[in-house]
Fold this protein.
Amino acid sequence: AHLSMEPQVTHTPLRDTRRTGRATAGRWLAASAVTATALVGATAIAAADTTPADNSAAPPAVEDFAYPGAAAITKVKLLRGDGHILLGDCAKPTQIQVWTLAPGNPDNQICFTVSGTTGSLSLQLPEVFAIQTAGGRAVRAGLTTGTTQQTLDVPKDGFKSVGEGNNGASTSLVELTVTG
């Protein structure tokens, strides 16, 4: 059966509006009801005919915040972050410099660039002895010495000695957070 979406109304010239006005209005209302019923029925049929797509092969849409390409980086172990603190080139202007005696760092520096006013990065960098900020960034550093954990705030364009830099025990940097 063919369903038409337009009302099937035949118009006749008005002869006497008192007599034919009611009949024309009645035909129009009846045709509108048929059209509405057809539309509802067609929508129900269309909804019943749709089948959900198979998304089993699609990757999950959940961000795990893992640092991209971390396995190829040998100077420092980068774990996860929000993408606003990235490993940078120390020959270029950087916002965060971490001074370390860790193997694989002949110039004793690991540098990071910051995009935005906030950022976080979890990492593992042993034998850190100083943290320096530049470019108007303040940083909070999460550090461990053996089993002791501490946080250190480094002001904008500041420098702080830690661990062996303060004649203390070897210290590892485990987190960087841009605070301003």
In short: The first helix runs from residue 17 to 49. The helical segments are 17-49. The two ends are 69 Å apart (CA to CA). Residues 34-47 have pLDDT under 50 and may be disordered.
